């Protein structure tokens, strides 16, 4: 039998402050969440690194496997005493290319570093800014699209109601859990997520978890 609301265990200490409330809502409103949430109740989303490193890693990881991205990031990081925007701007292009970065990704990383060093980003105001305003600001950086900006909202700012409809894993998980593996359109995924609001981030995290139990939180 599925657990009652009172039987849901407390989330881990690193969980966002809203996590327990979100889980109660999702278990009550959604049959799939009622099954998934108890399976992974010992884990929860947690914030990653600092904003520059989070975005830089997302650029390095574009269009390559997780294994390749990890290897390139390790070599790239080894070029620096500390991964900061100012230090990245001091690197030689040839050294960055030697770490395995494409010419395009070198350009993207330099543009990202310039946005931070030239204070083009409202980093101190992000906590108070609307999700869409942050997405607009981040997607003005070369190499950062909406999906990357949404991952930033989820994994760095821990925003509670992000629905990344461009995410292949989310659509695959919804297909498996709600549509018996039939292909799912963005509009169908949006309909499923109506029951998740205002906690789409939390439901998305559990969908990802259902696909890969070893997913990095």
UniProtKB/TrEMBL annotation:
CDD domains the UniProt entry points to: ENDO3c (cd00056)
EC number: 3.2.2.21
Catalytic activities: Hydrolysis of alkylated DNA, releasing 3-methyladenine, 3-methylguanine, 7-methylguanine and 7-methyladenine
Enzyme class: hydrolase
Keyword entries, A-Z: DNA damage, DNA repair
Superkingdom of the source species: Bacteria
Name of a matching Pfam family: HhH-GPD
InterPro entries (UniProt xref): Alkylbase_DNA_Glycosylase/TA, DNA_glycosylase, HhH-GPD_domain
SMART domains: ENDO3c
Signal peptide: none
Domain HhH-GPD: 60-212
PANTHER family hit by this protein: DNA-3-METHYLADENINE GLYCOSYLASE (PTHR43003)
This protein's name: DNA-3-methyladenine glycosylase II
Organism, as annotated: Comamonas avium
Lineage, opening ranks: Bacteria, Pseudomonadati, Pseudomonadota, Betaproteobacteria, Burkholderiales
């Amino acid at each position: 039998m599925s657990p009652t609301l009172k039987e849901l265990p407390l989330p881990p200490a690193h969980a966002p402050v809203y996590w327990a409330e979100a889980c109660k809502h999702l278990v009550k409103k959604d049959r799939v969440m009622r099954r998934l949430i108890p399976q992974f109740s010992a884990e929860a989303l947690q914030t990653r690194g600092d904003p520059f490193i989070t975005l830089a890693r997302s650029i390095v990881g574009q269009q390559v496997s997780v294994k390749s991205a990890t290897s390139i990031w390790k070599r790239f990081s080894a070029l620096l005493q500390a991964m900061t925007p100012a230090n990245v701007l001091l690197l030689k292009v040839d050294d960055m290319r030697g770490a395995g970065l494409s010419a395009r990704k070198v350009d993207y990383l330099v543009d990202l570093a310039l946005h931070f060093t030239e204070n083009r980003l409202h980093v101190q105001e992000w906590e108070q800014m609307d999700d869409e305003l942050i997405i607009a600001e981040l997607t003005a950086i070369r190499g950062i699209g909406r999906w990357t900006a949404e991952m930033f909202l989820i994994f760095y700012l821990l925003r509670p109601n992000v629905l990344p409809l461009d995410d292949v894993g989310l659509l695959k998980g919804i297909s498996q859990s709600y549509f018996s593996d039939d292909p799912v359109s963005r509009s169908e995924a949006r309909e499923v997520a109506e029951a998740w609001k205002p906690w789409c981030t939390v439901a998305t995290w559990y969908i990802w978890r259902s696909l890969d139990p070893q997913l990095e939180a």
